[in-house]
Design brief:
Helix content is 49%, strand content 10%. The chain is α/β, with parallel strands linked by helices. The strands form 2 sheets. A 6-stranded parallel beta sheet has the order 1-8-5-4-2-3, sandwiched between helices. The protein has a two-stranded antiparallel ribbon with strand order 6-7. The two termini are 35 Å apart. The structure holds 5,6-dihydroxy-NADP and zinc ion. Residues 39-43, 46, 71-72, 97-101, 103, 139-140, 142-145, 148, 150-152, 180-181, 183-184, 188, 192, 195, 253, 275, 290-291 line the site of 5,6-dihydroxy-NADP.
């Protein structure tokens, strides 16, 4: 097990009454005015927003609001939020929604105290030094942003989507009521579960070998997701399934599943290759849902790199799918590794996820544009399990079209 630092300062309030605790928790921390950030209309339709406001009112916490944040949130939304926050004198952020809304709120929270343009943080021109408190009401388990140290924002003007990380942006509190996810459409449920599995796999396949405790946590989280997702898809109001998915999503990305798998105690585990490849897709077309993009790109990445350490894939397959190699030979290990990738992709497809990039209406001619974006955001060579250059990334995108 490699050295690690694990820091997850968020207080998680989980269960049926979680939302009604919002006002009390903020007031106990002497927070006086919250900027509520939400998306299209789901939080209005479901009544979650009204419940949040009622709880704030009952506890004397004032609020301002900013709705309409789109999936794959855009830089101009963040800029507008920063202006609103400054004008309204809010002292904390209260995103109500999924990863997009939370990330928009995070960028407002660390951008508000900075004199320059908030994109500077994503462009490497500025370092995050402070962040307003963030309290999250999670309605979509997927991105894990309710416990993560990262924030991902799109910049349509330059067709870019970039992430930035700092411990100071980890939310102070997250309110998580699985009942708020009963209204999720199947596609969002499936995309969310895919994203969680990807967060675990990015760390598991970090190129650092095994870490017994973390590997056990990682594979049992994935087994739980594989068992729970079909139940939630058949019965969207299955509380136990929704609860399992919601909590697994947090543990998939608060770094618990990476302890001992990073190359140093100062860095996050994994090379995040599939995420880098996916972010270019949703950068050029914001209508592409992050998890759905991963469902295509991650198996393609796995097929391309598997030979670098097929034993690691076989170990994963044994724990997650019960795949036992026929014998101890190299061929048998390789066969088990390959079956593991097939089974994982089949699971994504069984939930209604796409198999090929063609299903997003993309043509192979887009690959050069994707590669240009990738080089700008990740440099000429990226990845930890196996270093990838431009031609490697091209080959992976090609597999993702042929899948
Ligand atoms: O906008 P509304 O009307 O609220 O609808 C949303 C949105 O259309 C809907 N939704 C949310 N909760 C719902 C609901 N519909 C019905 N019932 C509910 N309870 O779901 C749609 C998608 O929401 P979004 O927030 O975009 O999804 P997700 O949580 O998957 O977030 C995706 C974003 O997070 C980033 C992704 O790149 C993407 O931009 N990520 C953030 C990470 C982080 N900060 O740590 C890590 C991830 O790897 C990821 O990159
Ligand atoms: Zn993700």
């Amino acid at each position: 097990m490699n050295d690690f630092t694990f820091y997850s300062p968020t207080k998680f309030i989980f269960g049926r009454e979680a939302i009604d605790a919002v006002g009390g928790e903020l007031s106990r921390r002497s927070l006086r005015k919250a900027l509520i950030v939400y998306g299209g209309a789901s939080a209005v339709r479901s009544g979650v927003l009204a419940r949040v406001k009622a709880s704030l009112d009952a506890n004397g916490v004032a609020h301002e609001e900013m709705g309409g944040v789109r999936p794959n949130p855009e830089l101009n939304e963040v800029r507008a939020g920063i202006a609103l926050l400054r004008a309204s004198g809010c002292d904390c952020l209260l995103p109500v929604g999924g990863g997009s809304v939370i990330d928009c709120a995070k960028a407002i929270a660390f951008g508000a105290g900075y004199d320059g343009d908030v994109w500077d943080f994503f462009d490497g021109k500025a370092k995050i030094t402070g962040c307003l408190p963030i309290a999250v009401v999670l309605t979509l388990p997927a991105a894990g942003s309710e416990g993560s140290a990262s924030c991902v924002i799109s910049n349509d003007a330059i067709s870019a989507k970039r992430g930035v990380g700092a411990d100071s942006m980890r939310p102070t509190i997250a309110f998580m009521d699985p009942e708020t996810t009963f209204t999720l459409p199947p596609y969002q449920t499936a995309s969310g579960v895919t994203d969680m599995i990807a967060h675990i796999c990015e760390r598991y396949f970090s190129g650092q070998g095994a870490a017994a405790v973390t590997d056990a946590i990682a594979t049992s989280l994935i087994r739980t997701l594989i068992a729970s997702a079909p139940k939630a898809l058949v019965d969207p109001k299955d509380y136990e399934a929704r609860a399992a998915i919601m909590w697994a999503g947090t543990l998939a990305h608060n770094d618990l599943a990476g302890c001992g798998l990073a190359s140093s105690a100062k860095t996050r585990a994994g090379g995040w290759e599939s995420h880098a490849l996916e972010h270019e897709l949703s950068a050029i077309d914001p209508k592409i849902t992050h998890g759905a993009g991963l469902a295509v790109v991650m198996p393609a990445w796995m097929r391309y790199v598997v030979d670098a350490d097929s034993a690691r894939f076989a170990a994963f397959g044994r724990e997650v799918f019960g795949i036992v190699p026929a014998d101890a030979s190299q061929e048998a290990i390789k066969a088990a590794a390959s079956e593991t990738i097939d089974r994982l992709q089949a699971f994504f497809v069984s939930m209604g996820m796409p198999r090929s990039l063609k299903e997003f209406g993309l043509e192979e001619s887009v690959i050069d544009r994707l590669l240009d974006g990738l080089e700008k955001s990740k440099g000429r060579v990226f990845g930890a399990f196996k270093p990838l250059g431009r031609e490697d990334a091209r080959a992976i995108y090609e597999i993702a079209f042929k899948n």
